[in-house]
Amino acid sequence: MRIAVVLPRGGNLDRSRINSMEAVALTLNRWSRFKADLRFICEAGAETPVEAERTLTVAAGLGKAAHEAAIVAQLRVFQPDLIEYHQQLGCAAEIARRLPGRPQVLYRHTRIKPPSNPLDRWRYSRRLKVFERLIFVSRAAREEFLADYPSFDGRAVVVCNPIDVETWYGDPAHKEKLILFAGRAMQEKGLDALCLALAETLDKAPEWRAALMLGDWDRHQAWAEPHLAALARFGDRIEVVRSASPEVVRAAARRAAIAVVP
Predict the structure, then answer these.
(1) What is the number of domains present in the chain?
(2) Which pLDDT score, from 0 to 100, does residue 188 have?
(3) Are residues 112 and 149 located together in one domain of the fold?
(4) Which pLDDT score, from 0 to 100, does residue 4 have?
(5) Are residues 93 and 47 in the same domain?
(6) Which segments in the chain show pLDDT lower than 70?
(7) How far is residue 31's CA from residue 57's CA, in Å, rounded to a whole number?
């Protein structure tokens, strides 16, 4: 079976800058029995590409319409039996409509916007109907979606995010008294609550330290900095890494005794 995995616009599967959605797509398909006939489709430009021999690229920096046309062209050459789109509903729906006659699924990593009016509901429902399956990362995410779009109950399924635990595992005998947080530097990830909790915890446990691996720093710096400032008094007991590479995050996870999940 020939499978195409279409990644979100802007991604290029660069090993040094893999984002969480790309990591899920890569891990999910790493042990597929169809791996030999699987192709990732993303933008060109990766300095250290992952799965280069199984990647088809389109030019980086194209406008929305041109990007969609380039993806469609690659898919028509590859002729997949199944297409798996990640995240971007609008772009994926436009591409899927131009390639009928095969199963197409949407893997959604975050919530689909609730409709604010009847026109919104019609527009989003029209896009969603293109896909044979709508994949959500948890039962809670699926239930949240169905509360807004109950007519899609038969298409909505759950596939939990895969984790290659071997790359994260550290010897328990060599764990440090370190609390690790890895996530985007934004309110939705709970960074504000974490900073308050860390201040209280580190005051009570002076032998412990913390490491914060913060993604998308440039976008969220203005919001995040005041919360981090409350931890400045702990000096080198707090390690803050902004826009850390995946390998830096994994290295910290291997040595941390506690990991805080966003």
Answers:
(1) 2
(2) 86
(3) yes
(4) 98
(5) yes
(6) none
(7) 22
